[in-house]
Amino acid sequence: MMNKEESSLTAGKNGPVLLQDVRLIDKLTRFVRERIPERVVFAKGTGAHGYFRVYMPMSDFTTAAFLQNPERKTPVLVRFSTMSGSKGSADTLRDVRGFAVKFYTTEGNYDLVCTSLPVFYIRDAIHFPELMHALKPSPSTNLTEPARFWNYIAEAPEATHMVTWLFSDNGTLKSYRHMEGFSINTYVWISENGQRQLVRYHWKPMLGRKNITRYEAEFLAGFDPDAAARDLCDSLERGELTEYELNVQLIPFDQQDQYDFDPLDATKAWPEAVIPLLKVGKLTLNKATENYLEEVEKAAFSPANIVPGIEFSFDRLLQGAIFASMDAERHRLGSNFEQFPVNQTRYPITAASPQSRVPSAVRVEGKIERNQAVKGDDFTQAGERYREMSPKEQDRLVDNIIDHLMFVDDKIQRKVVGYFTQADEEFGARVARGLDF
Fold first, then answer.
1. Which among 91, 115, 401, 74 has a CA at the least distance from the CA of 216?
2. What local confidence, expressed as pLDDT, does residue 354 receive?
3. Around Cβ 195, how many Cβ atoms within 10 Å?
4. Whole-angstrom Cα distance, residue 418 to residue 425?
5. Which one of 207, 223, 351, 395 is least enclosed by Cβ atoms within 10 Å?
6. How far is the C-alpha of 13 from the C-alpha of 357, rounded, in Å?
7. Diameter of the chain by CA atoms?
């Protein structure tokens, strides 16, 4: 008797007839389709579940329901990731890390998308494609080439501040449990009486902040490329909690012009001495994921997912991310990605619920002009950042830059060193000496 899982030839009136193995074809088609396209950015990541609890009601600043009741635990999903590498890259390579939190609130899902550094390379999303092309491998050889990165930086002086963060030890780490998170983008909080505040978010690890040197990062990249993900998963399996404190910086909407920098500029940090941190609540991670594909790979995060009491600002980088993130998820997961369990709301949302009152676009007559005028300059905060470092931190920053820049074309080297010199003369001189200028 023929096994139903095997294909065979059988005699028919007009000759042999092929009997197709339906189960084989079904199994193979499932196999070749079980993977989904990786993210264009933040491709490699790991996730965990937990909850968020606010310390005290934030009603003076926002009506967002999940920020009002200290007794309520809001379920969350957190995804940590590296930014520019592929899914096969090492966790410890010099890079920006992602810290994305999905709050399952009673008013709908709220996504807070943060990174491990407080500033970014660019202030305008129109430059994002070129930036990512510079960070990704060469299109001709598929090799990561430092010259591609520095060639971009040479034409983007606003990235100087970011370089001082990325090439410090803040650019290399081996544990997400000891990583900070910064919103970079500026949002708006609205109180019940209509008062508006510009807001930026800051996650602080309760276990303390820890980084590693370039040498340890390079060793771990070969010894254990999944070091950060393994550290998080192993700790959760041991029953250890990982906690972060949420802080915010607030600027009254009508006072945003009083500073010598643009609060909506993602290449600029908000100095804590001028705009102090306000403690908001605590995030607790207590459960590892059970199905990576369903809970992490299919998770879709977007700054477009907001709730009443929180609105978008005119931050140009944010405005681009609102569109690009949603479009990327449709391309990666399909048009019904919001129906996946991990992306669904946990509470019933009706047409009459607060979720239906999130702000819509305001119609304005006129034309759009891309004004390149910038408040302040691209080097002051980079110089302040360098001078705030300890001598040893300065040494490692300079050494890391020289190591990455030494084989790049002299013309590019001199242009980039010129940016460092404008930030701080000693900083530029030390890099120049290391490059044998």
1. 91
2. 44
3. 14
4. 9
5. 351
6. 69
7. 91
Alpha helices in 257-359 (DSSP H): 292, 316-333
Q: Does the pLDDT value for residue 362 go beyond 50?
A: no
pLDDT at position 241 over 60: yes
Q: Round to whole Å and give the CA distance between 91 and 89.
A: 7
Taking only the tens place, the pLDDT of each residue in 10-42 is 555 666 666 568 888 889 888 888 888 999 999
Picking from 298, 184, 229, the residue whose alpha carbon sits closest to that of residue 82 is: 229
Phi-psi bin for 45: left (phi > 0), alpha (psi -120 to 50), beta?
beta
Are the beta carbons of 149 and 131 closer than 8 angstroms? no
Q: Residue 239: which region, alpha, beta or left (left: phi > 0; alpha: psi -120 to 50)?
A: left
Q: Cα separation of 404 and 376, whole Å?
A: 29
Checking phi first, is residue 125 left (phi over 0); if not, alpha (psi -120 to 50) or beta? alpha
Distance CA 203, CA 213 (A): 22
Looking up tokens 């096994």, which residue turns up?
3
Residue positions counted in the chain: 437
Phi-psi bin for 319: left (phi > 0), alpha (psi -120 to 50), beta? Answer: alpha
In the chain, CATH 2.40.180.10 sits at 40-344
Helix (H) or strand (E) holding 18: strand 15-19
3-state secondary structure of 22: helix
The residues pairing with 79 across neighbouring beta strands, listed in sequence order, are: 47, 100
Output b/e per residue, 44-77; b: 16+ Cβ within 10 A: bbbbbbbbbbbeeebeebbbbbbbeeeeeebebb
Its sign, for the CA torsion 286, 291, 297, 298, is negative
Query: CA nearest 185: which of 130, 79, 113, 101?
Result: 113
Which structure tokens are listed for 316? 């140009």
Q: Which of 158, 78, 61, 152 is nearest to 422 (CA)?
A: 158
pTM tops 0.70:
yes
Q: Which CATH architecture does the domain made up of 40-344 adopt? A: Beta Barrel (2.40)
- Rounded Cα gap, residues 371 and 342, in angstroms: 40
Write the CA distances from 308 to 14, 58, 64, 198, integer angstroms: 71, 13, 6, 15
C-alpha to C-alpha distance for 238 and 177, rounded to whole angstroms:
14
| C-alpha closest to that of 235 among 53, 80, 115 | 80
Instruction: Name the percent of the chain lying above pLDDT 90.
Output: 84
Short-list 311, 343, 375, 396, CA closest to 63? 311
